[in-house]
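Incident log, support desk, overnight shift.

02:14 A customer reports that sequence design results differ from what the structure should imply. Their input is reproduced verbatim below. On-call engineer (initials T.W.) acknowledged and began investigating.
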């Protein structure tokens, strides 16, 4: 064991230290923001060096740390509030989360304390969830590469892509700020020119309106004087002629109207007397018939009202039965969905816990750990005995 530890390369030690630090950061609420701070120094340290291939033992140790990181990220995804969206029953979600938190008490405690100190919006939570997924994909790709070839080139490439994306984004922001400043200056100049032109146009419009008013007043004054003189003379002649003709026509009309009016009044009186007699008879007949129809309609209304009340009663009973049936079906559907969700969560937790016990030699796997510890002790004793025999010789 001592000889193997002395042969470990410095690059492996540095990578393993960064991975352990990454695992610890995943237990904090701000792990996704600190992930970049861990990966960037790693890429700077390894960029100028030739990519080395680790031994199988080193690759297994690194893979164990990466698998633990993936498990922590998966648990963090289930804990985050964004994962609750789209679920119908919040009490069922609480039960599922309680089962997950039972096996990850430390992560749950730190995340709950950070969530109470700073209230974040749903948009920020979605962004954090997306960052967590990206980090999980990068670690999974690195894990696969480490298992197959014993290198971590994909991890460095992911960090380089992130740096290039941030650099391009920063350049775009600078260009946008410069464009906004130029637009503001142009808009200000445009407003100044617009105000000057509007003021000049307003002055000219006022002068034009004033001159038009003067011209209209002069025209109206001259036209009014000429029309007044002409109409005055015409009116005097017309009034004199009209008075004579009106007097003659009025006398003739009055005689004719008086004669016709007397005849018309006599005729109208006769017709009104005949209509009065007719309408009196019709009124009596219509009143009697309408009274009979009213009695018939009242009886029909009473019958229809009784039938309508009976139908309404039956309708309410049917609606109540339908609502009860729907409530029972919905409760059964929710119970089936809850049972399926609980079974899925239990299976995931059992698989994760078995993997944790195997990696950390907990529970029934303690004997495996002891057997591994006894083997190096036996080798050390054999070396000491050989060394003592050589000294005696």
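02:41 Re-run completed on a clean worker. Output:
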């Amino acid at each position: 064991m001592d000889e193997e530890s002395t042969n470990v390369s410095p690059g492996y030690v540095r990578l393993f230290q960064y991975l352990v630090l990454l695992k610890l950061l995943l237990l904090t609420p701000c792990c996704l923001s600190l992930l970049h701070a861990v990966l960037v120094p790693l890429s700077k340290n390894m960029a100028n060096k030739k990519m080395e291939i680790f031994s199988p033992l080193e690759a297994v140790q690194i893979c164990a740390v990466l698998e633990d990181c993936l498990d922590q990220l998966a648990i963090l995804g289930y804990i985050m509030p964004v994962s609750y969206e789209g679920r119908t029953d919040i009490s069922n979600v609480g039960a599922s989360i309680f089962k997950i938190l039972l096996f990850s008490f430390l992560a749950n405690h730190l995340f709950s304390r950070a969530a109470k100190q700073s209230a974040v919006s749903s948009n920020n939570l979605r962004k954090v969830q997306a960052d967590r997924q990206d980090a999980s994909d990068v670690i999974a790709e690195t894990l696969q590469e480490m298992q197959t070839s014993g290198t971590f080139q994909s991890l460095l490439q992911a960090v380089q892509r992130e740096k290039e994306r941030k650099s391009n984004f920063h350049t775009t922001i600078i260009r946008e700020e410069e464009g906004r400043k130029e637009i503001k200056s142009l808009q200000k100049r445009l407003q100044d020119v617009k105000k000057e032109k509007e003021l000049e146009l307003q002055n000219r419009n006022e002068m034009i309106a004033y001159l038009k008013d003067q011209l209209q007043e002069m025209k109206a004054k001259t036209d009014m004087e000429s029309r007044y003189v002409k109409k005055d003379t015409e009116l005097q002649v017309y009034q004199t002629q009209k008075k004579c003709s009106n007097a003659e026509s009025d006398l003739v009309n009055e005689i004719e109207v008086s004669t016709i009016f007397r005849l018309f009044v006599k005729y109208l009186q006769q017709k009104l007397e005949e209509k009065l007699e007719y309408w009196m008879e019709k009124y009596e007949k219509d009143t009697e018939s309408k009274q009979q129809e009213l009695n018939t309609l009242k009886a029909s209304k009473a019958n229809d009202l009784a039938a309508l009340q009976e139908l309404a009663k039956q309708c309410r009973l049917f609606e109540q039965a339908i609502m009860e049936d729907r409530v029972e079906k919905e409760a059964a559907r929710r119970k089936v969905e809850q049972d399926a969700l609980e079974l899925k969560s239990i299976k995931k937790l059992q698989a994760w816990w078995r993997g944790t016990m195997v990696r950390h030699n907990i529970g029934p796997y303690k004997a495996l750990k002891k057997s591994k510890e006894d083997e190096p002790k036996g080798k050390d004793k054999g070396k000491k005995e050989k060394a003592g025999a050589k000294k005696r010789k």
